[in-house]
Amino acid sequence: MSLHKTKLFRMRTGATLIVLLLMIAQNVLFAQSRAFSVAVLEQQPRFMQWTLKQSGRERQIRQWSVPIGLNLRIGKRGHLSITGSPALSEYKVVEAQQKFEFSGFSDLKINGSYLVGKSNWLFIFGLNLPFGHESLSNEEFVVANVIAEDAFDFPLSLYGTGYEGNFGIFRAFSLPFLTISGGVSYFMRGGFQFFEADSSSILDLGDEITGTVGISKELTSGNLNLDFYFTHRRIDVFAKQKIFEPGNKLVLSFSTDLKRYPFALRFQLVNRWRYGTEALFLSGISSIPRQDLNENPYQVEIATILQQHLFQSRFKLVYAAELKRFAENDAGSEGALIYGGGVGFQVLLWRGLISGANFKYYKGHLTSLGARYDVSALQINSTFKFSF
Q1: Rounded to an integer, what distance in angstroms lies between the CA atom of residue 120 and that of residue 266?
Q2: Which of 97, 157, 173, 319 is the most buried (most CB within 10 A)?
Q3: Hey, how many other C-beta atoms are within 10 angstroms of the C-beta on 51?
Q4: CA distance 265 to 243
Q5: Do 387 and 70 form a contact (C-beta atoms < 8 A)?
Q6: How far is the C-alpha of 267 from the C-alpha of 252, rounded, in Å?
Q7: Between vectors from CA 7 to CA 64 and to CA 205, what angle results, nearest 5°?
Q8: pTM of this prediction?
Q9: How far apart are the C-alpha atoms of 379 and 82, rounded to whole Å?
Q10: Helix, strand, or coil (residue 240)
Q11: Contact criterion met (CB below 8 Å) for 13 and 5
Q12: What is the pLDDT of residues 296-322, one digit of tens each?
């Protein structure tokens, strides 16, 4: 089968799978099976646009996506989710009147969890099915390389990444004044053809193993949470040659949730450190993105969300403020300072039917290969959720 036919097959299959999600939801809704106690069908149309300006030059990067997911609660202890998304991404060089596009479906992601014992053991698993748009044309490569910037936080960068799977086990310990949890998970990645014109351009991103420790403290009107994550990722391989050693990542997250009707406040502080990275470039593979340029040694994110419940919680207003700081790497890239906020709402239209939207605006600056850009962004998200 030719690559063109393969891509058409996967696009049609992706569309078919989204239709199947709707059919499954309909069957679950009308069936009297006791296997699924709760099912949630959710659709979240999203739009995000970034504008970069420097010395009379302007770049626009935008993405439309429509994630569709089906979440099932299996009995009292299990949970299963199935998600997929079509998306369209654009990169525009305004002064040159050039526009590049990248469109298609994402891979289909299946995730599940199950509680064992007295609900103190948790097993998780996941599977990524490669129905998404994988192999890139030159035009699509330009777009994918831009939207992969961490500071932009697009929902999708690479739509398809081949077969992937993960599994993990976690254990919680209840003490008189707090709860301690810990666990380990393993994330397996399969290779995929990166460029559509080169059958040898197989990109195999390294597997990951992550250890987690969490501490939770219940308060009279909320809780405090402190989480530690340590991740080691194996070497990335392109065209059967080692190209990049991602090294290790350490994450420290602190969050608190406070509730006093009609208000609910959430504050979160996340610090990420990466070390041990090394570029391993060999001759003949310079066409692959310089991944060492796409990593930053440190980043911090601060987010505050205030919710106001009205009309007996049938209507909810949401106010958000965010600050993100990305440290530059050795190449003078990936540094950024982004700040912004927004408002949103959520309304219970009918029993089990929820709709909502939020609007956010960001400002700041970022650096790329030593050049500094002033940036701004608009993000619009909507939500349609049906529980049955």
Answers
A1: 25
A2: 157
A3: 17
A4: 44
A5: no
A6: 14
A7: 80
A8: 0.85
A9: 25
A10: coil
A11: no
A12: 789 999 999 999 999 888 999 999 999
